[in-house]
Amino acid sequence: MPPRRINDSYMDVDSDESDVSILDDDAGPRKSKGKGKAIDRGRDKGKSKVKEQPYAWEASYVRSWDTVQEDERGSLQGAVQDLIARGRRKRLLAPAAAIRRTIIRHLIILLDLSSSMMDRDMRPTRFDLTLQYTREFITEWFDQNPLGQIGIVGMRSGIGERIGEMSGNPQEVLKSISERHKLEPNGEPSLQNAIEMARSSMSHLPTHSSREIIAIFGSLTTCDPGNIHDTLDECVKDRIRISMVALAAEMKICREICDKTGGQFSVALNEGHFKDILFELIPPPAQRAVPRASGPGINPAADLMVMGFPTRLPVTSPPALCVCHSELKSEGFLCPRCSAKICDVPTDCDICGLMIVSSPHLARSYHHLFPVKPYQPVMTMEGVAYPASACHGCAVPFREIATPAGSLATDGMSPLGRYRCPECSNDFCGDCDVFVHDVVHCCPGCGK
Amino acid sequence: MDKASHLSVILDLSPTQWQLSAQSNVSHPLTLSTFVSHLLAFLNAHMACKDDNSLAVFGALPGKSVMLYSTTTPMDEKAVAADANTYRPFKILDTTITQTILDQIESISDNDVEAPIDIVGALTKSLCYINRVTNPANSRSEDATLLPDPRILIVSVSPDQSSSYISVMNSIFSAQKLKVTIDVCKLHVADSVFLQQAAHLTGGSYISIERPDALLQFLMMSFLPPPSIRQLISVPTQDKIDFRAACFCHKNIVDIGFVCSVCLSIFCQPVPVCSTCQTKFPMKTLLRLKAAHPHTPPPGTPPLRSGTPANSLPRSTSIAPGGTPRQVSNGNPNMLPVARSNTSATR
């Protein structure tokens, strides 16, 4: 699909782009950098199309016109439908490489709250945009990483400032950055102080969880008390992955931090790109398979954890004190081991220390473990004595006559519109095929 | 103006359970035929509510699931005898459903009777069907605002099958994605953990019916109004929701499980190697967990007595006065020393 390729081309221009902006900064006061670049690019538009088009709207325009062709009656409908169908099929047929991803994630977001965030090169200001995107980021992050936890540290007036404690509740995290006037940017940022603060708050975490830092950095300077390279070495030792989104330009120390800790570094070109590169950091990262000397053969990151699945009490239940806030409440969860009443899950039980998660949270990730086998396109009805007349899933009748287009076969499209499950040999229509693999993750025929 | 609503009904047609339900020694017997007549009245009421309302009925049978009726499949209307006393569409609906249920039950062979009820198949089929009827690309003539509001009603008589845990959960998540409400009407047997979670997660209501002979009343009062109207009337809500899960190794339903940190597979006892992702677990964790959880006794055996007195933990502060805590099969006293040793371990 186009977005992937666009991102790649973004990455290509990243490096030289940031060099330019550093020169800009040296030359004089920086003003409306993003806009200026957009105008430059507009000028170049005619010359070299592919290389010089990192903007999403420009790129997708060119590609969609290139690929869509009219049919004999001059209509685009068929071509578009075909394109969509092929795209979906191709996605399904892509080999699912087994990558181990970190599921239990711990993340600290470093927000730059220095005076450089008041720059207006991103509308309305870098600061407002960062807050807005961070909120969206947190919501989306918790959606994809239901067992993760997020804490927030701000960089302001040369010190690191704890804004939100590590929490697994999206509402709590969002609340900590909801009040704009409390986060008013001021002074210089200190990368070292903030990283040290984030590092200390993650030092207690068990080995099987990932430790990550994402910094949104708008300044071009950092005002540190000591040698930041020492901090960097400590982070590498603690296996903290640091990723950065720079809003101004690339700084060597930022790039080095990200490279050494295995994170991503990128510079935002404009508002849309800022969001794209921030949201690229949402999917769980592949776990680094670094065999450690201490445990040969045994993955140090793997461990068996004891978890409890609670009972939820309804609002109508008689009120009782909760163990976490000592408040009188009706609704809540009961710890399965000690029956303590807890306000929210996931959490650690305050009484017996059991990790309490709601089992649907765990189950959300199971479709990765047991994917539905790809359905095979049915090429011919020969040799089938009693072919099913309707889709086994949605009961839509199959078409009788095969579509004559010969090119379809190469894309894994069935000329009959039938896709057969290799397990239960039931036929499904194209819509159900995509729906079962993308959404349900469970075959209606065999229940696997 | 209210939108049309689509109702998918999933009927649990387990021959064994219906036989048990019809026996006269049950407090309120309900035979399958009485059930079907109640249900048909309810379905007719649904169709009568609004002209555009649509309906699909799925049957979950031992080892298979079938679509019994849908408003979109063309019917052979000639086959239904005319009846001057009945509104014709109702007559067609009633006859078709009764006939297909009969056909399906007759086709069950004797060795299939004990096979597990394919409730998952029926659920996924109804989701596929809803995906088709609510997908705007498929009904080109209508604009998106005319698409029906979908919901699913599961009438369940069988107990949970723990082997279908993952499939049920996957179906629940896809229902959430499609914004489908799942209602559950539970007859006779003990509460179903998975269906409770299904109703809770999709915002539907889970009602366990104590008087099955008053089924129609419950259907009409609680399940007839579409979700948009439910906010205005008070439909009975769930009492407690059990968030227990089934373990991957023995398919037991557990409330405290051992979870692989890599793939989040749940096990009911400490295992050295994860059966799903083949990860080996460190020996010291295993020894620690095994020491802490000596032997999970099978349900029914008396819990092991431990040295710690049961009242040494400040439990009384946290237990709701009315809501008695769920009893764990291996008993709370047994678990107390675990609580101690684990506090240091999990932190």
Write up this protein:
The complex is a heterodimer of chains A (448) and B (347). Chain A is an alpha/beta fold. Chain A folds into four domains: 4-55, no CATH class; 99-279, Rossmann fold; 308-365, no CATH class; 376-440, Herpes Virus-1 (2-Layer Sandwich). Helix content of chain A is 34%, strand content 16%. Chain A contains 13 helices and 17 strands. Chain A has helices spanning 2-27, 33-44, 56-67, 77-93, 126-144, 170-176, 191-202, 228-237, 252-261, 271-279, 359-363, 366-369, 430-440; strands at residues 105-112, 149-156, 159-167, 210-217, 240-246, 265-267, 304-308, 311-313, 320-321, 328-329, 332-334, 341-342, 347-348, 355-356, 376-377, 419-420, 427-428. The model of chain A is unreliable at 1-51, 59-64 and 290-298 (pLDDT under 50). Chain B is α/β, with parallel strands linked by helices and 347 residues long. Chain B has two domains: 5-230, 3-Layer(aba) Sandwich (Rossmann fold); 244-347, no CATH class. In chain B, α2 (32-49) runs antiparallel to α3 and α4 (119-134) packs parallel to α5. Chain B starts with a strand and ends with a helix.
Main attributes?
heterodimer; A: 448 residues; alpha/beta; Rossmann fold; 6-stranded mixed sheet; 3-stranded mixed sheet; 13 helices; disordered N terminus; B: 347 residues; 2 domains; two-stranded antiparallel sheet; 11 strands; 35% helix; disordered C terminus
- Sheet with the most strands: spatial strand order of chain B: 3-2-1-4-5-6
The CATH topology name of the largest domain in chain B reads: Rossmann fold
Q: Could you give the order of the helices and strands of chain A?
A: HHHHEHEEHHEHEHEHEEEEEEEEHHEEEH
* CATH uppermost class of the largest domain in chain B: Alpha Beta
